[in-house]
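Hi V.,

Quick status before I head out on leave. The structure for the redesign project is tokenized and pasted below; the design run finished overnight.
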């Protein structure tokens, strides 16, 4: 492995590690919620009985997760909001099928993932370039001259060059912190396929970052 490739690995690992730490901090914050808050299963039960306030409670509890997944896939805030609304509208129409709070979370991730893929395919069918090839992605002038926020944005842009399913696998793994088995269940995809997508995607990201760094040495 060359020095440039090693540095590329470090940059990618740092970016994904920071995302994981932010995710963990968010979960710790949620754990400190007031003890008197009503249990999620109570809200689900009431929502299934037609309580609109309870359904609104479910939306508030899960909207950040659904929006984050869509936002990191489509990279457009307005479109992500539209997709999130579609997901919760679909939930409202299918509440009877939700068995538990854990099933609800799984169901929302599954539906949001498929909505993202459907959106990308529709864009392609309309001639829009929802994703671009590795060679077509514009290269940054220099990563060394970029502040951390710009470097993170650069890596996110590289992730956006991945094909639909590998991009979604990377998003679920490193943004939503799901393990490969959970991703396989959400996407109804063989575990080995998930692992293959992750290995190939990380190799592509490493190549992109290496090419970006290459001119500095």
């Amino acid at each position: 492995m060359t020095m440039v490739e090693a540095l590329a690995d470090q940059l990618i690992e740092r970016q994904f590690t920071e995302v994981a730490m932010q995710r963990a901090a968010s979960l710790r914050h949620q754990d400190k919620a007031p003890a008197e808050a009503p249990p999620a299963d109570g809200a689900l039960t009431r929502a299934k009985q037609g309580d609109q306030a309870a359904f609104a409670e479910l939306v508030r509890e899960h909207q950040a997760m659904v929006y984050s997944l869509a936002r990191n896939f489509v990279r457009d805030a307005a479109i992500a909001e539209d997709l999130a609304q579609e997901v919760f509208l679909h939930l409202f129409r299918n509440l009877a099928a939700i068995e538990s709070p854990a099933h609800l979370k799984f169901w929302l991730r599954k539906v949001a993932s498929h909505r993202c893929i459907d959106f990308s395919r529709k864009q392609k069918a309309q001639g829009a370039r929802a994703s671009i090839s590795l060679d077509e992605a514009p290269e940054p002038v220099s990563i060394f001259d970029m502040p951390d926020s710009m470097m993170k944005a650069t890596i996110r842009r590289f992730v956006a060059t991945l094909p639909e399913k590998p991009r979604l696998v990377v998003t679920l793994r490193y943004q939503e912190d799901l393990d490969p088995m959970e991703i396989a269940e959400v996407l109804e995809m063989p575990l080995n396929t998930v692992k293959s997508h992750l290995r190939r995607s990380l190799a592509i990201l490493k190549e992109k970052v290496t090419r970006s760094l290459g001119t500095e040495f």
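Above is the designed sequence. The mean pLDDT is 76.

G. will cover questions while I'm gone.

Best,
W.
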